[in-house]
Amino acid sequence: QKEVEQDPGPLSVPEGAIVSLNCTYSNSAFQYFMWYRQYSRKGPELLMYTYSSGNKEDGRFTAQVDKSSKYISLFIRDSQPSDSATYLCAMSAPPGNTGKLIFGQGTTLQVKP
Amino acid sequence: EADIYQTPRYLVIGTGKKITLECSQTMGHDKMYWYQQDPGMELHLIHYSYGVNSTEKGDLSSESTVSRIRTEHFPLTLESARPSHTSQYLCASSEARTTDEQYFGPGTRLTVT
After folding, report:
1. Is A8's CB within 8 Å of B40's CB?
2. Which run of H or E residues covers position B35?
3. What own/partner pairs with CB < 8 Å and gap ≥ 24 does A26-29 have?
4. Chain-centre distance of CA A100, in angstroms?
5. Contact B104 A45 (CB under 8 A)
6. How many CB atoms lie within 10 A of CB A40?
7. Which of B6, B42, B98 comes nearest A103 by C-beta?
8. What chain B residue is nearest to A35 in terms of C-alpha separation?
9. For residue range A10-69, what is the model confidence (pLDDT) as tens digits?
10. Could A43 and B106 be called an inter-chain contact, meaning their C-beta atoms sit closer than 8 Å?
């Protein structure tokens, strides 16, 4: 069983829709949770970073962590064609576990004009 | 925008050839990483370095080797390329105090024929 599971999609939505991207994980030691965005033929770029449980908002993006359910989400409001990309969740345990990132397989999102 | 560079961006090479994938960063980051990414699959850590003269193997077994003689440079070498090495190789770096906020290069897409 993979430590991090992410629905690969693809997910296709009309412009302006609210998008929900999700990951589940099995390792209760994970405390740092990230979302990376990867455009075609580019490297991933850090989009959101959250420590432990709770919500974090940045513009149209909201990251949500529910440690009790081992479930994280990324919400995109008023989605734009420029949001079309692959979104990767990633997580890590505290430095005592080397702090290496474990990635989900990514969800490909297409926002149609 | 992260200043991390990878060359070449694309490489097609025959079986048995020796290749070196270059990665450089100008951010002064102590920590650097190499990931392998196949289509629709998660990123797998193959090598990492926490500073000059420090290198470790990652979670995914790889026949490649790395070196870290200078802070800014982290090349990956394959002594004898095989078709199974065909993949996307991503280099990343992060500050010493955290392994989570990793900045990625654009990647090298390697095809071994």
Report:
1. yes
2. strand B31-37
3. A26/A1, A26/A2, A26/A70, A27/A3, A27/A91, A27/A93, A27/A102, A28/A67, A28/A70, A29/A93, A29/A94, A29/A97
4. 17
5. yes
6. 8
7. B42
8. B101
9. 999 999 999 999 999 999 988 889 999 999 989 999 999 888 888 999 999 999 999 999
10. yes
Mean pLDDT by 10 residues, chain B (113 residues): 88 96 94 91 90 90 91 96 95 77 93 96
- What three-state secondary structure class fits B77? strand
Cα-flanking dihedrals φ and ψ of residue A2, to 5°? -70, 150
What is chain A's length?
113
Gyration radius (Cα) of chain A, Å: 14
Q: Which residue has the tokens 């997910």?
A: A11
